Amino acid sequence: MFKSENSKPNHACIVDFQNFRYAPPAQDFMFFMYLSTDREFRRECMRDMIEFYYREMCDIFKGYHLNPEEILPYEEFINSCNHYRIYGCLLALNHNPVICIPPELLKSMFADASAVADMIFKDRSPVIRKCWMECEKYRSKIRESIANFVDLFTELKLL
Length: 159
Fold this sequence. Notes:
The protein is mainly alpha-helical. The protein has one domain. It has 9 helices and 2 strands. A two-stranded antiparallel sheet has the order 1-2. The termini are far apart.
């Protein structure tokens, strides 16, 4: 979205509608936590991050003269976070193979529109395989996503 002055854009706001949905805040929060942090960080800091997020959300509600405890009590938010751990874990497992493609490979791919189209609409396995074989950081991130899945689903007795 663009804001213009004298028919010239002077401000842009990126709006991502690919996951546009009506969902509890915990869904986005858990997706962010599983996509952006590792297991060690979550073990050490998840409670602090939940409390920080909740406080910030409450401040936003209060800024609109709303009572956070009426809209989303803390215990309900905690329960919702626990519920959406699976969602966050699975989305990270799904997104990381593409999100973590090394920038240098992305740059060369985007120079060839047909390669991008093939990866998006046909078969991304050659790109994923190349990343796996050539980049330790990529392998580490994907292994972490798989380990998150195994840990969480074992804990929940789903495996």
